[in-house]
Structure formats: structure tokens, C-alpha cells
Amino acid sequence: MGDISVILGAHNYLNPEASQQMSAVESYHPHPEYKVNYVPYNDILLLKLSHKAKLSKYVQVIPLPKSSSDIPPDTKCIVSGWGLIDKEVATAKLFETNIAVLSRRKCLQFYPELSSGMVCAASHYKLSDVNYGDSGGPLVCNGVVQGIVSDGFQFPPSVYTRIAHYLPWIRKTMGHPRAAGGSSWCPAWKRTRGAVNSEMERPQCLLLLLSLLSCPLAHAGALRSQIVGGHEAKPHSRPYMAALKVSGGFGCGGFLVAPDWVMTAAHCMGDITVILGAHDIHEPEESQQVLGVETYYIHPEYNDILVSNDILLLKLTAKAKLNKYVQVIPLPKTSSDVPTDTPCSLAGWGLIDKERITNRLFETNVTIYSRRKCLSIYPNLNNGMLCAGSFHHLKDSSQGDSGGPLICKGVVQGIVSFGYSFPPAVYTRIANYLPWIKKIMG
């Protein structure tokens, strides 16, 4: 959930179409029991618009379910959205794809956490036509919206919030005896990843509900700041670590690669202040050095949709004073891949379990995955990426701070980039970018 503006009546959201209506959000109504525990639960949000939409042939409401009944297995449905339509091509036009509802028994094989507030759907025939519509987009079955795009891997099936389960809450929140009633309740869309396979040339009836969760593709997407299941690092044992204050808040990490250069992830781009020599980021430690950024060098081919070439160099306003608290870390010497099963470590500030936040530096151990194994989870993996995670625990590898370092045998090999809420995560493979790094840093 964030600061949302709603566009209705759009087919190509990058073109100012005469059919489009824009509206602000007057109030946000997330489900009071929304939570993420490996998968999102109660993943539903109502938006009260600042004014009623003008209903026309381009803007219509869509009916909600009339009862709390489950959707029968094999029911044919449609999911639609904007985003990726294959591994590399993004579209600004609305696409759609056909899928079918899976039985609850079959879905539990993929998602043991499946609850009565969720439903699974997928294509029975191909991998390419279901991942995904936009997060928050509608699952429409027989003209009724039955689900909200919520969670999933990069292959079918995906999990949808089962709207019928939430009818009492919807009616209570909207104050309508019939939940589909008021025309002022209209959808927002949130641009995430989506492989949907046929362009919709007809106007799309729009949805009343929005998913709380940012799509697991993109942002699987940019990682939140967390070292779940790790342990507190020995103070100042990682003197290359940089805490990045981005637009006023701590949300990313980085690392010192030269006295006046810090490396981080491109998706951390913002108004950055760098803190070096920190263990507790909210304590004014004598070891800390605070520096501004003179110049930002984002990779020229960074793609925020695919999260590729996710690397950013920061030229500091002054050279850091190197001492026992502040040191640089070596970069790779060649462009070679990191061998499978290489032990590595991560460090960062943020969440250390599902609910606890720490201001102190935490660390955890991970292992490099084979490229073949990683491709089965992340089909968009390219030469500028590598995978790492724990083979033994779900808790100890997700994830370092965005922009933080993946350290293998004393060398920084990766930058925390994106992933799911379980291992493995994807890291920018620094060795792939050595020519660009040397060109920028001179």
C-alpha cells in the first residue's frame, strides 16, 4: 500500500486517452488482519475515491460474488493487467489470459499455507500465460470478480484472494447492503509484473478491490530491508558496510569499494546520505562518518520492470577516512561466475524476524545456487544476476538490505537485488559489470 492515484477507462496507460478518468483516494481500508507469513493473508484493500466515477461504456463496475461459496474446480476465468508479456517485453496496453480454477486439494500441494481466503488458478496447458496479471488485478469467472491477484511463483499456479470469503467485511466497510452497489468504489491498478498473452481491444470493466501486497516478482521485486533468522554481527566486524538514508529514511544498504565510492542497487536510487562505520544506525557512534553524494551513476541499461542491471555507483562528496571502523572491500578480479555451493554471507539492518526490527547490523550465511536450479525459480535470470540462499532453513536467507553486499571468501560478489519472501534471492553479479565499473570509477 502506498500513495495511490487511480486511472479508470485506460487501455494504454502511457497515452492520455479521452476515455480515461483520474481520481485521488480519499481513504484507504486494508483488511485489519492483513499479514505476510511466507504468503500474504487477508490480502485485500478497499479504496474510497475522492469522487464518484462517471459510468460510461469505458468505465463500469463489476459484480461481486453473491454468496461465500467456493469456486468449483475447472471453472474457466480470465486475468488481466499491464506489465510483462514475456521474459523481456513489457507492454503499456492491457493484456488478458485464460486460466482455470484448481481444486483446493491440488493447490495445497503447491501452497501448504493456503487458507479459506485464497483460491488457486492456472493454465493446465502452458507455463507462459499466467504469471501474472497486475498485483491487485481481477480474476473474473463467468462475469463475476472472484479473486484478486495476490501471490505466486514465476510459474503456475498463482494464488488469488478469494473475494467471496470477505463479503461481510466488504459490506461493512462500504456501508452498502449490496457490496457491488456504489459507483464511487472503483479500482486502482498497481503496475507490477505480468505475463498475459492476448491484448484486450475492448474496454475493461474495472475492479472494486486492490491487493495489499506488492507483486512478489518485482518487487519477486526489490527486497525489503531484512536479515531474517540471522544473528547480530560483532560490532564493526564488517567495516565496508554503508547504511544509506534514502529520502529521509533507512531502507537500503551499500558498501565502500574505494575511499570516495559506494556501490549499491539501482532500485535504491533517491536522495541518498551515506553513513559509514555504523553498527547501530540510530545511535550517534563516534565511529560513524556521514557523507553526501556528489554524483549518482546508475547503470545506463537499468530496467526497473525486469530489475536487471541493478547497480548504482555513488561518488561521495569527500573521501572516507579509512580506519578500523571504515574500510573498502575488494571487487572480483575477473568476470568468472561464482562456483555453485560457494559459502557466502550477507549483512544488513532491518527486520530480523516477521515482527522485530533491529537498528543493529545483523548477518547470515547463504550458499550459491547453480544457475540451472535458479532458472527453475527465476526464468528471467541473466548473466548479470546470481542466486544464493540457505538450503536448510526458510528463515536465514531472506534477505539482506537492498543494495547490501553478498560476500564470498572476502570478496564482494553480489548486490542484494530482488526475490521472494523465501530463498533463494537474486543478486546483481558484480563480476559481469567490471568494465563499466572501471570506466566510471576511472
Automatic annotation (TrEMBL):
InterPro entries: Peptidase_S1_PA, Peptidase_S1_PA_chymotrypsin, Peptidase_S1A, Trypsin_dom, TRYPSIN_HIS, TRYPSIN_SER. SMART domains: Tryp_SPc. One of its GO terms (biological process) is proteolysis. It comes from the Eukaryota. Gene3D superfamilies: Trypsin-like serine proteases. Keywords: Disulfide bond, Hydrolase, Protease, Serine protease. Pfam families: Trypsin (PF00089). Residues 1-175, 227-442 form the Peptidase S1 domain. GO terms for molecular function: serine-type endopeptidase activity. The keyword Signal does not apply. The keyword Flavoprotein does not apply. This is Mast cell protease 1A-like. It comes from Chelydra serpentina (Snapping turtle).
